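User: My collaborator sent over this chain with a note saying "see what the structure looks like." That's all I know about it. Can you take a look?
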Amino acid sequence: MEYSLLIKRIKRGLTPEEEKQFQDWYSSSEEHRQYYFKLKNYNQKNTTIQVNTSFAWKKFESKIVKSDTSSWKYTVAAILVISLISFPLYFFLNSPFDQENQVVNIQETENKSDEIIFKDQNGNTISFGKKDSFVAGGYYQANKDKLKIDKTQGRSGTNTIIVPAGKQFTVELSDGTRVTLNAKSKLEFPTSFEQSKKREVVLVYGEAYFQVTSALENNGKKFIVKNSNQNIEVIGTSFNIENYSEQKIVTTLVEGKVNLLYGKNAIALIPGQQSIIEGNALKEIKEVDVYDYIAWKDGMFLFKDESLKGIFEVLSRWYDIEADFQEKELEEMKFNGRFKKDQNLESILRIIENTKRARFELNGNKIKVMQYQE
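Assistant: Without extra context I'll predict from the sequence alone. Here is the result:
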């Protein structure tokens, strides 16, 4: 459905032929109906709206008169289908936009929130609910999994997205670049790159996988990712940056080409290479199996000859836990394993315990790591 027709219906009304086209589109899916409501409310109120579709539907169902007579039940269902096509959902609700998304103080929630936090260019801060929810503003649309920034010619300011422990989130920037953020990550980016000479974003901390649109598609503008101790200059490529420690940045190039800028130095990476920057110095560049370092974006924990300390550093970002090693030598024990992110933490610990090399005692979010005993 053309955007211009939707705006025309909201502002002036459609011709009979256009109205039929609209009704066919509108009745074909719940997603279309929610999109139309979002657009209508935004144009009427010119404010950010937030819709929790799951909660609204539950309230809607609670308004339905139930009956033991099956024929009456089907009659009510038929009436409701017609009504949904003809009238907005909020016609049936007392409070259609009751939802989990909340305006919050970003400083207060950054370190303790279990929800994804988005701060737009106007300073509005929104937390995305745990359930299926839809958020829309003048230049963006989002749900609990993804934020999409529209191309705009208007004022461009800075936006911030913060992903807490146990979450993963994707941002599609206005140039079409996709950034998948791992748990405990923070990204800052402009609404638009139109008025700037380069496309620049900041990975403040955490881990992100970038799929960058080429400079050729963006008037020759290079894409720059800024970190605490390095900048990455991109022509058009896919790569991963791990920046959980201020003193260590790991960059893995999947395809394309990047120029690594650190201190006053610069070096180019080729696909399959990984660089490690510590402080302002290049520690090493090595050949790696890149999927080992990007499996997280596909919902996997993949460990190859990884120390137990390293494994718990990864698990802590997802399950928000803290490991207490009872002996120093336990930290350097090497393990191999593949786990799904939706696995229960206890099941992962049991699998490691089955190697008969370590055992664990879980108390809240604290895990005591001990030598294995029969």
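A starting point for your reply to your collaborator: The chain is about 25% helix and 35% strand.
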